[in-house]
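Troubleshooting: if your tokenizer reports a length mismatch, compare against these two reference records.
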Amino acid sequence: MKRDFLLFFFIALTAEIGTTWLQKFQGAKDLASGLYYPDLGTMMLNRLIIWLVLFFLLSALGLLLTRAYRKP
């Protein structure tokens, strides 16, 4: 895991940026500047679910690519 620290850092960063970008499309409407959900709990749950899905998909892809690259 230490060997892939930089990979997982970029995966987490990409998942966060993707979640922020996708949040705009899932929100009900603009309630205030930068707020897209009527309550904080709904926003956090939706954000967490999207983030986890993106993180796991990108992690699996990253691990597959690094393992394929390391094998002769």
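Reference record two:
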Amino acid sequence: MRDPIGLYIHIPWCIRKCPYCDFNSHEFEAEAAQGLPHALAEHYVDQLLRDFQSDLHLFDLHPNISSIFIGGGTPSLMPAKSLSRLLELIDQKVQLPRDIEITLEANPNSADQARLQGYRQAGINRLSLGIQSFNDQHLNLLGRLHDGQEAEVAVDAARRAGFENLNLDLMYGLPTQTLDDALADLDEALGLAPEHISWYQLTIEPNTLFYRRRPALPSDASISDISDAGIARLTQAGFQRYEVSAFATPNRQSQHNRTYWEFGDYLGIGAGAHGKVSSNGRIWRTQKTRVPKDYLTEPKRQYAEVERAELPLEFLLNALRLREGFMLAQFELRTGLSSELIKPALAECEQLGLLKLMGTQVKPTDWGYDRLDSILERFAMRAR
């Protein structure tokens, strides 16, 4: 029996593209309360199901799916009934575990209580709210469609709808943001008692409006101060930093995201979705048609084998993001390679104080965890 795998489902539409966003999202003119038209949503669900079955056939999979993540875009523009039908048909195909984690990303402006109740009744049991900030000035600079009060209302609506596993997405290093501003955002979030907080730095990515019109950001020193103070604040509040930008209360780590970081397999369906699949001793990366209208007409995939020489670095890019690091046996299981290949670079990083080797466990030191790029550079240099 093969290891459990994740399933990622991409919903590509947004009401408005945020200036920092480099995800595959496409503007759709609709009121948030209305969401996508029923006919469009149902057509998209039909294509998602074809996409899913095509992947199963191509890779000869009979998967034990351990988690589902519905991301975007703005998945909360999808009607709850359409997502319910999608999940029911996937369940009929592969028999989902009764306790499976199913996450939906939602924006506060499209997360009214009636809609959220429909998602909860559909079997979605984890909600990830894209709040980014509670400061109205910063939300405006980020191009968000909600304000701080709407974010709080959305959290309350989620609880009333029955969600007991809630993640709040927050960003720091925003234009004009001070240390006090960033900590005020965290305090607002902590006051809402979520089970999980994703707290990450704003980065300027190519193919975004911010890349073409770069805003003035806080200095590197200010961002470092914000990061240190924020981590301390979250830790003091009882959150465990288990990944670079992920903080969870006990037993509330994101199981789906851990699949990525542990270099596990996952199918990716939907316009622009990516996947990683191990099949017959080979590892494949997949990507689907990006443009929604093309995906709706005839979904296509690109797939490429990950070369053996690339596997060590690919594994480490993910596994070293986890605070606990990884086991050497896990490296061998996920890549099919001997751990002897990476031991010289591991030893070098240990000498430099970047990694700690504890028997068969490899773990970043506190100092090394803030210098993951330096660790990866060592492995990349040895791979040449």
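Descriptive notes for reference record two:
- The chain has a mean pLDDT of 95.
- Residues 5-260 form a domain with the TIM Barrel fold (CATH 3.20.20.70).
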